[in-house]
Every structure is written in C-alpha cells, then in structure tokens.
From TrEMBL, chain A:
Belongs to the ABC transporter superfamily. It holds the Pfam family ABC_tran. This is ATP-binding cassette domain-containing protein. GO terms for molecular function: ATP binding. It comes from Kaistia terrae. It comes from the Bacteria. The keyword Secreted does not apply. Residues 15-263 form the ABC transporter domain. InterPro entries: AAA+_ATPase (IPR003593), ABC_transp_ATP-bind (IPR050319), ABC_transporter-like_ATP-bd (IPR003439), ABC_transporter-like_CS (IPR017871), P-loop_NTPase (IPR027417).
Automatic annotation (TrEMBL), chain B:
This is ABC transporter permease. Belongs to the binding-protein-dependent transport system permease family. It comes from Kaistia terrae. InterPro entries: BP-dependent_transpt_permease, MetI-like, MetI-like_sf. The lineage of its organism: Bacteria, Pseudomonadati, Pseudomonadota, Alphaproteobacteria, Hyphomicrobiales. Residues 1-27 are annotated as: Disordered. The keyword Chloroplast does not apply. Residues 98-287 form the ABC transmembrane type-1 domain.
Automatic annotation (TrEMBL), chain C:
This is ABC transporter ATP-binding protein. Its main location: membrane. It comes from Kaistia terrae. GO terms for molecular function: ATP binding. The keyword Transcription regulation does not apply.
Length: 279, 303, 330
C-alpha cells in the first residue's frame, strides 16, 4: 500500500509510527447492546527521518488530528507502537519519556490560543526549560531562539495581546524550539494567518529545517502549502494513508482518489483567470 | 434576588433571513462601563470605610437605651439621623450594621469562593466521573432553597453571624462551582494548555499557573455579586429574626425593629433600607464594571 | 422591479468609524447590475465592516457615513425598519460560518420558507415548494427530507448551500458573500463556489465577494478592489489587476501565493513575502498606509496619501509598477 519513497540522505527514522490503530468506543445504541467502535486510524505506518520535512494532508475527518495526537504522545494508541530514536515511547522509564518530550515539539494552528494571555512572552518561552528541568544558561538560549525566529528582545516583556497573529506564531515557534527539539510537528501552522504573513511563516519553517537540521512534520488540509514546505507527503483518507509521494508527483500523477480530490480542490489565480476553474 | 447584574450588551437585531454578523470586530462604548465601575467602587469604598471606622469610633453606644432621647427626628444635633424607639442613635447602629453586613456577606462569599474554586477546578480537570458527581451534587444543592437551609441551621445551631455565614456558604457554593467549572473548562480547551502538557507540565501546575490567572476575573466578579447577594440574604434573615442578635446589629434587624414603629416614625425604616440598597447597588455596579475590565476575552478584543 | 436599474450599488465616500477608530476611510466604487466584484483584504483592512455597513448591520458603536445608492435609495439614510424589509429581498448576505448563521432549533425548511413568505405574497404550501425547488438548484440531496432536518444534522457544505439558497430565495439584485467558503473543507469549497457562481449567473444578480483568497476572486469575479488599512489601493478588471498588478501590495499578495510554479523540485525555493505586518487601526502610518512594508517607498509616500486615480484601472500609489516590470515576474 505504501510505496517506498527513496530518501537519499537520512538513514534511520527519528520519529516513527508502526501499525498504529486507534478505535474509540461509541455510546450504546440500545440499553443492552454492545458498544460499537469507530476506527479512526487503521494500521498506520508513518515516519520522519533526521533533517527531513514530511507532510500529511487529508480532509477533515480523515484522521489527521488523531494521528497528530498519537505522534506527539498526547494519546496512547490501542494497537501499534510509536518509536522515538528506535525506542518505544510508551514502554520505558521516565527518562525516556523526558527525552521524547524535549525532542518532539508542536506548533499549533491558532497562535492566539497557543500562548497564555496572562503570561509575559519571556515567561512563556522559559516554561519548557523549567518544566523539563533543562540546565544551562537560559537567558542565552532565549536570545538565541529569538534570533532564529526573527523577533526582537523587547518582545520578552510584553503580553500576547500586544502582538499580531503572525508575530504570535513566531513566538509559538520560538517556544517550541526552546528545549532544542529534534522534531517539530506543525499542525496547520498558517491557516489562521493573513495571506501576506503565511509566506513569512512558511519560509521561517523551511529555514529552520535547513539551518538547524530539524525534522519537520507539516500537517495541513492544503496540498500546495504542504508541498512548498516538505519533500515527502502522505495523503490520509478515512483513517488510512492512501498515498505517499513527492509533492510534484502527487500533483502531476495522483494515484489515490483522495489525492485526486485534494489536487482537484486547489484553486490558483491562474486557473481562476482561465475561467474554467469552476466548470 | 440573587444576581442583579444587567448585561449592557445588546446584540445587533438580526432580521429573519439575514443572520447576525458573526466575526465582526465588536467594540462597545467605553463610557457606561467605566461609569458603573467608578460609582460601584465609590459606594463600596464608603461602606467599607464606615465599617472600619465603627471598630474604633462610634458617636454613641448603639445598644444602650436612653429613654429621654426616644424617637428624636432626623437633624437633631448629636443625632443627625435621629434615634429609635429606645433612644439609640441611628448613625451608630447603621455603622455597626455595615460591619455585620460586610462581615457576613464577605464571609459567605469568601468561603463559597474557596470551596467553589476547589470543586469547580476538580470537576473541570478530573475525569468524567468526578465531573458528573460534582456537577450533579451542585444541582441537588441548588434545588434546596437557601432560606430553608438558613432556618434549619439557625434552629439547630442557634442563630448568629457564624450560622448565617455557614448558611450562605452552603447556599452559594454550588453556584460558584458551576461558574468556575465552566470558566476553567474554557481555559483548559485553549491550545496553550496542550502546549504546556507537551512540554511536560502536570495537572496541578496547569491549574495553578494557567487556569487560575485566566479565570481570576470571573472569580472576582462572581465574588462581588455574591457579596451583594449575601448582604441581601443576611438582611432577610435578620428581618425574620433568625440572623444576628444584639449586641450585634444588622440592617435587617433595624428594619425589623422599625417595622413596629411604622406610622409612628416611618423614617426609621428608611435609613437601614437605604443602606442595604446603596451597598448592594454599589457591589453590583462594581461587579458589572469589573466584569468588563477583567474579562480576558473582552480585553483581548479591545486591544 | 421599478424601471431599469443600471447599478446594483453606487458607493460614494463610505466611511465607517466608532468613537475612537476609523476602519473604512473613504470608499468609492460602482457595481453594475449583474456585475461581480471582489473585495480583497487581510484582517483589519475594513472589508467585513464595509459589507456590514452596506447591509445596515454594523455592530454596536460603529457608524457609517457617505452614500450607498442601491435600488434607487441611499442605504445609509434608510431607517432600520426600511433596511430590514430590504434585507433578503433586494440585497442579501452569505456569512462565513453557516452553523452560527442558522437557528439551531428550527427546521431548515421552516427557516428558508419563512424568508420567502416574509418578502413575497405566497402561501405556506407555495413557499415550501419554492424552497424545495431552491434546494434542488443548490444540488442538495433529497430536498424533501432536508426540509425537516435541523442544522446540526447536515454537513458544513450543505449548510452553506442552504445559506446561499436563503440569500437567493427572493431574487435579490445583490448578494454580498463574506468569506463564504473559509470555514469549509477544501474539497467542498469548490463545489459551493460552483453552485453560488451558477445561481448568481442564472438570476442575473450582482455579486460582491469578500475574501482574502485571491484565487476565489480570480474564478468568480470580473472586477476586483484591493483594500489595505481601510482604503482601496487598487481596482480594475480582475485579469488585468492580477496579471499586471500596479500597486506593490497587490503584487506582494500575488507573489506570496504558494502555487506549483514557485515550488522548486529540490525544495530550495522561497516564497516572496511582504515584510512587516498589517498595521493596527489605532496606529496607522501617515501617508500611504503601506509605505513601511513597501520596497519602493520614498519621502512622498510617508507624508501624502496617494489618491485613487480615475479610469478603468485605478491605483492609489505614488510609484505604481509599470506594466513591463510586472510582466517579467508573471
């Protein structure tokens, strides 16, 4: 089902899901009936290698959100395993869990909601270090990360409401970078931003992968945004990964029906002007 | 009788077929909100100051009858609001009454706030079973009329300030629990909570450092509104004769005593009545004003 | 319908403000009958307040000045009552979020047919059969059953089609659609746009499409107005504006669209992006509001507001991009 895609560099997967199946039990239809269950993820294999940027696309309801929750350790899968650096994250000591927590960080969709409105930016940035008890010169680390995301030091004293959406997303990215993660999981990181700001944030994510050697998992509903940021894209539909490929191949020769739907859904200025986009 | 808060928000009327605007940047006029905050603050501060002064200074002893001074009219030198049927100074009684009202109202609201916060946060952050247990428990307690609780407590423990505070606590805690639970659930659904969990913060830290600061506004507003409701309830209980007893004095008790003189000296009922109205009005205005200033969502929108 | 109405909308010097802020700072444009105009802008550009001002639905505290001629009257001068009898009849609106736009406790059929009954003189039966016919035109499955459904029982795409049906029910002269597909799944977006497009075309009704999404405007509209910080900065036929943008902001927006053309195979490509951020309303820059983000800005841009010139291609810029320069990047 999952055609192997050559990845020239890279070697062993850094973060990996093997045969993950997740089911939720629903309410009983009758008083004495058995609980029906809903399979949200069906034997999913998914991985990202060191320094690699991979994408995950799918319609809402395809299982993207659940996959993200399992990949970040927010949820434990019913069946299957999640490995970080070859070790099962659900089968180890506290030290292994802590390593996983520092190494896999997340950027979420809505930057207004992802920062505590009552906390100064500086405090929010230090939180991951304090929580994960990471030693070292915290101030230097904060300045270093601010530089990486292109924010000035004045930001530290301020509160979230003093910033625009695009700046807040940079701050959220900075917080994710603080513990020095190896994998960044970005869940629809630009869909809540203004058009002129989206490009800035996409470029920033791309730079982080190139300059810091981070691995990136980019989850979105919009294939063209994912294609711009990643080199390998998995397409999800109804709880399964139905196609994996390079972005260009997915555009030009989509195999699965879900991929064809996603490619067909893309509107561009040129296709719109050509007058047949809505034909 | 409980919450006297009037929402000043009037939604844009949506005609049939045309739904109301959903995402417009809604901004409200600032003037009335600040006015209610200032008036509320002034009234509340005056009463707090009076209560404080009454501890150190009273114009005369409000409990000792002075028969030759019976029923002096307002404006009499030395007794500017007059005296009651036993010749006791009205101002002195009102001052002690302010102390009692504030003690009982604030006491009831404080204990309810503490218990309601613990129960509300537990319901919001624990599993479904705990939530159900706490929420249904609150529903059951809310279905028992507060006056009945107070009368039963007064009958079993004897009436007094402490009994009244306990009755108010039993009466108000479920409401605090509900409000704090729903506010906390709102905060717990925000993405910064998810982020905190992802860098390893535990439940207690999240509640203390993220949830509490973000619901503080709701808590303060709730506190002022129930402070006012507590004063009203206390007045009601004292009026019925199951509140505080002399040498303690409460405004409700003064009303009760004055009632026997209506027709003889009607102003006697006016003064404590006016004190209750102004104090409750002040707290409600303060609560409404604070709600607008402290609500993080409104603040975010206004910025 | 009274006589020949040449223009669906004539807006002159529209200003929308509250006591502290001015969000829309003087709009002038004309939308001919049956025309389709796109209004592009980012958050804070004033595009949504413009739409609400046209509908007479401004949130509390906001006020509109200027003139808006529609159907022979000035909408700004109309009473609330007159406006409310107009809404849904000669002018109607489709909002972003169809779930909060429908009454959750009334059946869909009742909601739509009551709009028809309010504005036309038909009985209950007739209104219901018109509603079913409308649902059919919106390609909604099993329209008879849908009549009895509640809003939460159907999908987002279906809800938005119902909103469109409701907006079209009384053959209005003008439909204002504010981000009608932003809340929908990508794969549903195109279908909803297609249905809106066809329905508007069939009825010959004018469309004002408000969105931040340039491709949608390219596909749906014949003219476009680009708004920035409460003013129109560029306006003209959609193909000309998008192929040869003359304002630097328009060009920046076009260049920051991720498309297959600017995705290099080796992943080394970078999107062109507009530096800086959209200025907040309370601290708009002097002169041209875009100058702090503009590479071509000069002294003049910082002090004087560029006027929107006249003609079919209108630009408010002291240093418009020449056609030849733009062709190179196209």
């Amino acid at each position: 089902m999952n055609a192997p895609v050559e990845t020239p560099l890279l070697g062993r997967p850094l973060l990996e899901m093997r045969q993950v199946t997740q089911t939720y039990s629903l309410a009983r239809p009758t008083l004495l009936g058995t609980r029906p269950s809903l399979t949200v993820l069906d034997h999913i294999d998914f991985d990202v290698r060191p320094g690699e940027a991979v994408g995950l696309v799918g319609e809402s309801g395809s299982g993207k959100t659940t996959l993200t929750r399992i990949l970040t350790g927010m949820e434990k899968p019913r069946e299957g395993h999640v490995f970080y650096n070859g070790a099962d994250i659900w089968d180890g000591d506290g030290e292994r869990w802590r390593t996983f927590r520092r190494s896999v960080q997340v950027v979420m969709q809505n930057p207004r909601s992802s920062l505590d409105p009552r906390m100064r930016i500086g405090v929010s940035l230090l939180e991951p270090l304090r929580s994960l008890k990471i030693e070292g010169d915290h101030a230097t680390r904060v300045f270093e990360v601010l530089d990486q995301v292109g924010l000035s030091r004045q930001a530290l004293e301020r509160y979230p409401h003093e910033f625009s959406g695009g700046q807040l997303q940079r701050i959220a990215i900075a917080r994710a970078l603080m513990p020095g993660p190896k994998v960044l999981i970005a869940d629809e990181p630009v869909s809540a931003l203004d058009v002129s700001i989206q490009a800035q944030v996409l470029n920033l994510l791309k730079d982080l992968v190139n300059n810091l050697g981070l691995s990136l998992v980019f989850i979105a509903h919009d294939l063209s945004v994912v294609a711009y940021t990643t080199s390998r894209v998995s397409v999800m539909s109804a709880g399964k990964i139905v196609e994996v490929g390079k972005p260009m191949d997915l555009f030009v020769r989509p195999q699965a029906e879900a991929t064809r739907n996603l490619v067909g859904a893309i509107l561009t200025v040129e296709s719109g002007l050509a007058g047949n986009a809505l034909a | 009788m409980m919450t006297m808060s009037k929402s000043s928000r009037i939604p844009v009327p949506a005609p049939p077929g045309v739904p109301a605007p959903t995402t417009a940047s809604k901004k409200r006029r600032r003037l009335p909100r600040n006015a209610s905050l200032i008036i509320g603050l002034v009234l509340t501060t005056i009463f707090l100051a009076v209560a404080l002064v009454s501890i150190f200074y009273l114009p005369s002893n409000p409990n000792i009858p002075v028969i030759r001074n019976r029923l002096l009219p307002a404006g009499t030198p030395g007794h500017w609001l007059g005296t009651d049927v036993l010749g006791r100074d009205i101002i002195a009684q009102l001052m002690v009454g302010a102390r009692t009202s504030i003690l009982v109202g604030a006491g009831g609201a404080t204990f309810s706030l503490i218990l309601g916060t613990i129960a509300g946060l537990a319901a919001a952050a624990s599993g479904k079973m705990t939530d159900e247990a706490i929420s249904r428990g609150a529903d059951i307690m809310l279905s028992i009329p507060g006056m009945v609780t107070a009368l039963v407590l007064a009958a079993t423990m004897g009436s007094g300030a402490l009994t009244t505070i306990l009755a108010l606590t039993a009466f108000f805690t479920p409401s605090f629990t509900r409000v704090i639970r729903s506010a906390a659930i709102g905060v717990l659904n925000e993405d910064f909570i998810t982020a905190a969990k992802l860098y390893g913060r535990g439940k207690i830290f999240v509640l203390a450092r993220h949830v509490l600061p973000n619901i503080a506004g709701v808590m303060i507003v709730q506190f002022t509104l129930y402070f006012a409701a507590g004063i009203l309830t206390e007045a009601g209980l004292s009026y019925l004769g199951v509140g505080v007893h002399r040498p303690s004095i409460s405004w409700g008790m003064m009303l009760n005593e004055a009632q026997q003189q209506v027709g003889v000296s009607s102003p006697l009922a006016i003064w404590p009545g006016l004190a209750i109205v102004l104090m409750v009005l002040g707290l409600n205005l303060l609560g409404d004003g604070l709600r607008d200033v402290l609500d993080p969502k409104l603040a975010r929108r206004a910025s | 319908m009274t006589g020949t109405q040449l223009n669906a909308l004539e807006v002159k010097n529209l200003v929308v403000h509250n006591t502290a802020l001015t969000a829309v700072r003087g709009l002038d444009f004309t939308l001919p009958a049956g025309g389709r105009m796109g209004l592009v802008g980012e958050s804070g550009s004033g595009k949504t307040l413009t739409a609400l001002a046209l509908m007479g639905l401004l949130p509390m505290g906001w006020q509109a000045n200027g003139t808006v001629h529609h159907d022979g009257v000035d909408l700004i001068a109309q009473s609330d009552r007159a406006l409310s009898s107009r809404r849904g009849r000669t002018i109607s609106m489709v909002f972003q979020d169809p779930l909060s736009s429908l009454d959750p406790v009334r059946r869909i059929g009742v909601q739509v047919s009551s709009v028809i009954r309010r504005h036309t003189n038909v009985g209950k039966r007739e209104a219901e059969s018109q509603t079913i016919e409308l649902f059919r035109q919106m390609s909604l499955p099993r329209p008879e059953q849908l009549m009895r459904a509640y809003p939460h029982e159907i999908s987002g795409g279906q809800r938005q089609r119902i909103m469109i049906a409701m907006a079209l029910a009384c053959y209005p002269q003008l439909i204002i659609a504010d981000e009608p597909t932003t809340a929908l799944d990508v794969t549903v977006q195109k279908q909803v746009l297609r249905i809106l497009n066809a329905a508007v075309k069939d009825r010959g009704c004018a469309l004002m499409m408000i969105t931040h999404d340039l491709p949608i405007i390219a596909a749906m509209c014949d003219t476009v107005a680009v708004m920035y910080a409460g003013r129109i900065v560029e306006m003209g036929p959609v193909a000309e504006v998008f192929r040869n943008p003359r304002h630097h902001y328009t060009k920046g927006l076009l260049d920051s669209q991720p498309t297959m053309d600017n995705i290099a195979l080796d992943g080394s490509s970078r999107l062109a992006s507009i530096p800086g951020m959209v200025p907040p309303l309370h601290s708009l820059p002097a002169g041209c509001a875009f100058h702090p983000r503009c590479a071509a800005a000069t002294e003049a841009c910082m002090t004087r507001v560029p006027p929107l010139d006249d003609g079919s291609r209108r630009t408010a810029c002291w240093h418009p991009i020449e056609a030849s320069v733009a062709m190179v990047t196209a």
